[in-house]
Structures are given as C-alpha cells and as structure tokens.
Amino acid sequence: MNRTPPPQAIPFIDLATQQARIREKVDRRMAAVLDHGAYIMGPEIAELEEKLGAFGKAKHTLSCSSGTDALALPLMAWDLRMGDAVFCPSFTFAATAEVVAWLGATPVFVDVDRDTMNMDPAKLDLAIEAVKREGKLKPRVVIAVDLFGLAADYAAIRAVCDAHGLKLVSDAAQGYGATTDGKLSIEWADVVCTSFFPAKPLGCYGDGGAIQTNDDDLQRIMHSLRVHGQGKDKYDCVRIGMNARMDTLQAAILIEKLAIFPDEIEARMRIARRYGELLKGHVVPQALAEGAVSTVAQYTVRLPQPERREAVQAALREAGVPTAIYYPIPLHRQTAYERFEVAGGELTETDGLSREVISLPMHPYLSEETQDHIVEALIGAL
C-alpha cells in the first residue's frame, strides 16, 4: 500500500464515472424512446425483461416501479392477510417489513448471523416453531435479505421453509446477481425481488424494480396485479391491484447498465478482496464463504471499538473519506415496527451489529490510489 495525499471529493458510490462509460449508448436508447413515444410499457420493457431473464436464469421476469412494489406483488398474489406471519430480518431496510405490515400481516423479526450479517437459518427455524406453538399467527412466508450484496444461506433457509410449508422470497435489492457456488437465489427461492434504485449495484436513473420466478401461476397473477388487477384489458379488473409499471425510459437505461453489470460485479469483488487484505487485523469484514460471489453493494466492516464509531467517522470525514452506517437502528427498535413480533424476545446479533458496523466507499471504479488513502485514513482513525 502506497501512502497518498487525500484524493479530491472521494465519492461513496461513483455513478458519474459509470455514466461516462455508457453515456453515448444511454443517450441513443433514451432518444429512441423519445422518438417512438411509448413512455409506458414501450418495447424496451419487454427487451429488458428478456435480458434480465437470461441473466437471472428465470422463466419469468416482471419489471415494476420499485423494489418495494417488487416485494409487495408476490405477497399480494399469495393473498397475504391479517393473521399471517412473515419471517424476516430486522437488520435491513424498512421496505422488507413494510410491505408485510401494509398488507395487514405480521412481520416476525429473526436474528442474523454475526459473521455474514444475514438471516440465521437455525434461529429462523426456532422462530417458526415458536409462532406455531403460540397459535396466534399462521406462518406463511420467509423473506431472506441479501445484505450488502451477499446472498443469504438459501440452501439452509429453503430446507427450513420446506419443513414448515412456507414460501421463500429472496429480497435481492442489494444482492441481485450474487451467487453461491455458481447458483443464483432463483435456484431456491419461489420468487426473487430486486430494486433498481440508483444507488443499487444495478440501478436506473429513478425508481424501478423487478421480480423473477419459475412459477407460471404466480407470474400470471402478478402480471395482472401490476396494472390495477386487469384481466383481458385495463377495463376488466378481475382483482384489486396497483399501478406498479416501470417507465420505458428507465428500462432503456437499464438495458445498457445490465450489459456492463457482470464486469462491474467482478470489479466490486476485486476491490472488496483488496480491502480485506489491506484491513486484515484492523477491522472485521462481512464474511464471504469460499465459492460465494457478492455484488458488494456496500463494503461493511465491524469496528474493534464500537463506542468510537462517531470519532472514527469524524476522522475519516476530516480526511475526505465519506462513510455510512447501515443500519444504525434496526427495524424492531424503530417506532413503526416496535409493536411487532421479535423471535426469541431479543435480537442480540442484530443489536450488536447496529452498534459496530461502518460502510466504506465502494463502487466498480474505485482506484487503488483512492483505496489506499481510505485504508490509511481508517487505520489511523481506529
């Protein structure tokens, strides 16, 4: 590692450099949409869905207006309702549990594994058993989150779901494209949901999302729900739906972003490995098993002295290094969600991680020079 002067304006994520790489192609794509004028459900929607299907190895792909709607549509299709229990982590963004409560069901928060920071399959099994014994709620669905781009332990979680007869949703908002021994989450999950929010590894220039499944019936119902529950046309509503379409312009942008996405995942992994080598013995990164490929949405580490986190952030800020905390307050301790079920009565690892973690700049265009400065600043601040 070479000592370097502070680079100017280090970005936490670098959309500008990515845009410069594909700007001409994106401009042509957007101009084509402006020329044909099909701003809603234009031909780029079908093209994107086809290309996403090939990338995600899914029989069906349904684009939609956001990652939140991507989570909501399959739950609506399964007729989730009051009295149903949906098991999900608390150490995640609000959308994961929000859609559950929005539909009248009850989120049951499950603790995570300290090393991977993802849902702990053993604790999930115990949580389902506890809900069954209590008898107040009916276990229906598990939502596993690919936190920071690392795929959840889907093989183990699928086994738990099968043992209890539950559906499995992959919340791949941060981890779309992540693999375990070469396998995508569609290999285990009933449905894969992702977000194309601009800050995501695969993001558009606004809001957008997508759902992937191999279930023909589920796809048929979600396709209807996406456009107000329509039947043969929009004036034949056969179920209560919503307006969850993706704009054609966003699809056009995503087609070009998807083309470079595999290369960007490879770059993110290379940068993450280098972070790990340079920071070894100073902080503890999210554990990555052999054979796992993360999309590294955020490079998140545990600090050795959590009580100094604010001081570390301040020192890094002084050195021109931006940081973020994901997540400072877990969902089960936020006002809107504190009334919901907490498996086992407490989430020890979740609470601990919320105090310990800090995220460093991460994007596919992070130079070694800039990375050296970030690492030097962090080690000096510890």
From TrEMBL:
SUPFAM superfamilies: PLP-dependent transferases. The active site is at K200. Pfam families: DegT_DnrJ_EryC1. The keyword Transferase applies. GO terms for biological process: polysaccharide biosynthetic process. Gene3D superfamilies: Aspartate Aminotransferase, domain 1, Type I PLP-dependent aspartate aminotransferase-like (Major domain). It comes from the Bacteria. CDD domains: AHBA_syn (cd00616). PANTHER family: TRANSAMINASE, UDP-2-ACETAMIDO-2-DEOXY-3-OXO-D-GLUCURONATE AMINOTRANSFERASE. This is DegT/DnrJ/EryC1/StrS family aminotransferase. It comes from Fulvimarina endophytica.
